[in-house]
Amino acid sequence: EDQVTQSPEALRLQEGESSSLNCSYTVSGLRGLFWYRQDPGKGPEFLFTLYSAGEEKEKERLKATLTKKESFLHITAPKPEDSATYLCAVQVGSGGSNYKLTFGKGTLLTVNP
Amino acid sequence: SQTIHQWPATLVQPVGSPLSLECTVEGTSNPNLYWYRQAAGRGLQLLFYSVGIGQISSEVPQNLSASRPQDRQFILSSKKLLLSDSGFYLCAWSSQNTIYFGEGSWLTVV
Questions:
Q1: Which residues of B touch A (CB under 8 A)?
Q2: In this predicted structure, what is the pLDDT of residue B41?
Q3: Which of A23, A61, B14, B52 is exposed most, by the fewest CB atoms within 10 A?
């Protein structure tokens, strides 16, 4: 069974204090790993897709990396507006037009001013 | 640009009552459409997906059903709600290997 585990469950940082969120996965046939940001009471907002080990993507203060077993979301000098739940998801399968994702439970990030 | 609309945003329903959540996508044609549920303490769970009009696949056995009467319309329904149906329901569509979510509907079954 495909599994996605995110750690820590919650992380509290001071503004400017860099850190990383972890997403480890056990799947067969990984087609892509996705990161989303979710604000309270809202739908998830797409951030990144990573397809192969060694790949990196950046957006503002966020950088996502991928290995064969896990992905990291690095947050550099975070600001209070970066506070949100960050979700990791994997897409598996042999092909076709259906893009089903298996999600982790998320990491709740709080950045204090 | 593509947009996704989902309604109602919140609803409180008694046990045993019916349910209808609606979702429409604008700015694209023949999208893949999805219904996810997010329950407290659990990850997003895929409920249904559709690759075309009238084509529905169910991922989780339950008392919910989905329909796609038009290309860009996706409906989640139930004839009789259970307490365990409470949660945050999200409609989504996919393009170029990325899934985009709507704003969600909060359902509380009392």
A1: 6, 32, 41-46, 49, 51, 57, 59, 90, 92, 94, 97-104, 106
A2: 75
A3: B14
Determine the pLDDT at residue B102.
95
Q: Chain A residue with minimal CA distance to B50?
A: A98
- The C-alpha angle B101, A102, B23, rounded to 5 degrees, equals 25
Q: For residue A3, list its beta bridge partners.
A: A26
Place of tokens 């393009």: B95
Chain A residues near residue B49 by CB distance under 8 angstroms: 98, 100
Q: Where are the domains of chain B?
A: 3-109
Reported as a pLDDT band with limits 50, 70 and 90, residue A94 is: low
What's the CATH code, domain B3-109?
A: 2.60.40.10
Q: Which residues contact A8 (CB under 8 A, 6 or more apart)?
A: A21, A22, A107
